[in-house]
Each structure stands twice: as C-alpha cells, then as structure tokens.
Amino acid sequence: MNRPHRLLTILITGLFLVLTRTDSPAADAAPGPREQADGQTLAREVRSLQPASTTTNRATLEIRNAAGKRHRVPVVIETLAPTAGTDRWSTRYRTGSADTATGETLEIVHRVDAAPEYCFEGVPGTAASPIAATGSGRSFAGSDFSFADLGLEFLHWPQQRLIPAPKDNPHMVKGRSCRVLESRNPTGTPYSRVVSWIDLEFRGLIQADAYDARGELLKQFSVGSFKKVDGSWRLKDMEIIDEQRGTKTRLEFELTVPQ
Description:
single chain; two-stranded antiparallel ribbon
C-alpha cells in the first residue's frame, strides 16, 4: 500500500463510518506532562502530512436524514499542493455542476502551525467570503460534515494528549495498530473533545469520536474501504454519523484508471 496516509488526510478530511464500534478511552482530567508533550508531537505529525501533487477527484455525498430518506450531492474535490518552500496547501470542495447557477464552494487552507482558514462561496459567480473561526461549525452542503470537520480543526486545539496503550496490548481499530490522541477544545463548542485513532505505521487518521459539552458522544467519523487502481491503493469512501440527530453522510469517491 503506497502511503495511504496522504489520501486519508487530503481527501478527508478525514473521515469516516465506524464499521465496528470501538469504545473511546475515558477522559482524564489531569494528563501528565509526558502525555501532553507526546500528544502535541503526534498532532503536529498528522498536521504536517501534505499532498505531493495537485489532484482533482469527483465524489458523491450521500446524505441520510433522521427519517431514513436519502439524497445525493455530486462534489468535485481539488487538492492544491504546497508551493516550493512553504507549508501552505488547500482543498476545495465544489458541489453542483459548472454550467448551473447552483451549488457551493468551500476552500480550506491548511498550514502546519496555524488553524485552518475557510473561504465559502454560496452561489457560483458571487464573491467568496472568509468564514470566521466561530462559523466553522457550519454544515457543508447540508451534510453532517461541518467546515471544521473537513478542516480537521481539532488537531490545532491547544490541548492534546497521547492516551497510553496497555502494556503489550496496542490500541486497535479496523485491524490496525494505532496511537490514540485526545484533543480538548477550550471553548467546549461544538465539541468538548475528540478522540482519534492514528495508524501506527502510516500516521493516517482512521477513526475519530467527537463529544459535546456534556461529555456525550455527538459524532463518529471513520474511513471506509480502499480499492487498488492502476497499481496504487486509493480511498473509496468515508462516513460521518451524527449519533444525537440520527443522521449520516457518506462521501464516496469515483475511482477510475487514468487514460
């Protein structure tokens, strides 16, 4: 498998349906200095993953409401690689088609040591406008993915800690050995903390559980499956479930062999 961590970070943002329920480690009110330092190091490692080249992918958002009704939204995902000598790269999500006056565009600018920046265009042809940090909880295209979810914003929160694994018994999810990172939000909104599983070998995000201010599970994210295309493994889908509203969104990528 050729470095799937890039796909997990770029096409994500990451995330994800939990095919097998995994209990999140309990919150620790007083993490030790070593756990905090290791957590900061791991969060920065994941933030540092960057695309090697500029790519364009077509995908579909399948959105299921609480009543079980589904609808599908086409989306084009453009990933712009960083220019030489910089750590600035971006991902652009565009719904609808280019020849209609519908759809919306969200561009997320990523940097290693700065919070994501969001620029949103509601209708093609109108001026795109930056979104303040307080607005990053806004839903993208009516889905369960918020701007902050797609930007992996929790990796930039000031409080990060590595949750130690039991001796000789590594954290496991989807058959992969993982490190588990707990990120805490000082504001407590919309998430108070996020517990994420990072692949031990590839450093890619496999699963994340987000909790509200009461400490109750709010959303679950997970990568889905991979498919081998033209000799390389590519991410097929990811899902996010809103456990409290009973809704779910699946992001499925169109995987084709280059002509």
